[in-house]
Design goal:
Elements lengths: L3 E2 H10 L21 H18 L3 E5 L5 H9 L4 E6 L12 E4 L16 E6 L9 E4 L5 E6 L6 E6 L2 H10 L10 E3 L2 H12 L4 E7 L1 E2 L11 E4 L2 E3 L8 E3 L2 E2 L7 E4 H9 L9 H4 L1 H17 L9 E7 L3
Parallel strand pairs: 2-3, 2-5, 3-4, 5-10, 11-15
Antiparallel strand pairs: 1-7, 6-7, 6-9, 7-8, 10-17, 12-13, 12-14, 16-17
Bound molecules: S-adenosylmethionine (SAM).
S-adenosylmethionine binds next to strand 3.
Length: about 325
């Protein structure tokens, strides 16, 4: 097969007719995120608090998987209006009353997602699967577009970056000091997708939670990787695995940029080990408190989920 730019192969691999994210098992069949299980229930509580603080009565989950986070939110706060957005039809397991909009996928959002009011939009691990241009520095020190054979994953170097990607690099990830073989995952496609999402909001707050880096800590060799059945694999864009790359979070329009650890400490407090005496007087409460502490510890681990970036942007009615 002819090699194509990574961004095109990636879009087709994840969101084409046989794309990875259209599979029945959904993302949770291949990897765990903060949105799943006990940690997901606690994350839902934190998001409900954020919604209250920001005056939001509607939570929209963009890249909702099969609705795991929405189910937890609904269980905690049935008073909130909830809507999921993902590339598949509405999961049958979703509680009645939770809305759903089917999306094309990647950088493209559904037309119906407009005029969101008094809303908290959450994009939890969406931007890392918005395909972007991958560039590599050639032997002469010039950035070139990386091409890939969609069937084998074999890479080759294509032409120079197009002017828009080159301009993004100059502003956010300069290539002058990079060495041959260094790579840049050009954030322009993510910036544009994020700006599009913000444009769907009349009044509210938009939160992205993702693996990320800033100008202070760009990864020299790139972060492109595949995931299948719970393990990292070579990123072959044939639809058999997830393909993801960390997000340049500081180039996204934002009002606040922080880590998940800091954000959750602010919203939920710090993990507290419950008094052991409670295990005798109220064993159920003791076990619930232990489970909460363990979930919060996992979500805020600085070497793990706590290192995720929270990017928050407010949209005020104009
Ligand atoms: C890495 S998974 C994260 C799923 C879930 N948010 C979680 O954290 O467990 C990314 C999800 O984003 C979805 N997605 C990608 N592009 C999208 C788009 N344009 N609109 C809606 N969902 C999208 C994928 O289909 C996939 O379910």
């Amino acid at each position: 097969m002819d090699p194509v730019p990574w961004r095109d192969a990636w879009q087709d691999a994840l969101y084409g007719p046989d794309g990875f994210y259209r599979r029945p098992e959904g993302p949770a069949g291949h990897f765990t995120t903060s949105a799943h299980g006990g940690p997901g229930a606690l994350l839902a509580q934190a998001l409900a608090r954020l919604a209250d603080t920001e005056g939001a009565t509607h939570v929209v989950d963009v890249g909702a998987g099969r609705g795991e986070l929405l189910e937890a939110l609904h269980a905690d706060r049935p008073d909130l209006r909830l809507t999921g957005v993902d590339v598949v039809d509405r999961p049958v397991s979703l509680p009645a009353g939770v809305g759903w909009t089917t999306s094309p996928g990647g950088a493209v959002l559904p037309e119906a997602l407009v005029d969101l009011d008094d809303v908290l939009v959450v994009a939890h691990e969406w931007l890392d699967v918005v395909p972007c241009t991958v560039a590599e520095i050639d032997r002469a020190g010039r950035p070139r577009t990386v091409l890939v054979d969609p069937r084998s994953g074999e890479e080759s170097l294509g032409g120079p970056l197009d002017p828009a990607d080159a301009a993004w690099c100059a502003a956010h990830w300069p290539t002058d000091d990079l060495a041959p073989g260094d790579r840049v995952e050009v954030g322009l496609a993510r910036d544009r997708a994020w700006a599009d999402l913000l444009g769907r909001v009349k009044r509210g707050v938009v939160l992205a939670v993702d693996y990320g880096h800033t100008a202070a800590d760009r990864p020299a060799r790139g972060t492109l990787i595949g995931y299948r059945d719970g393990v990292g694999v070579d990123p072959v864009p044939d639809g058999s695995c997830d393909v993801t790359a960390h997000v340049a979070v500081d180039s996204l329009r934002h009002d606040e940029l922080t880590t998940q650890r800091e954000a959750l400490h602010r919203l939920l407090g710090r993990p507290v080990v419950p008094d052991h005496g409670l295990s005798r007087t109220d064993p159920a409460a003791y076990l619930a408190a232990l489970a909460r502490t363990s979930a919060l510890t996992a979500l805020t681990d600085p070497a793990g989920l706590g290192g995720f970036r929270w990017v928050l942007a407010r949209v005020r009615a104009g």
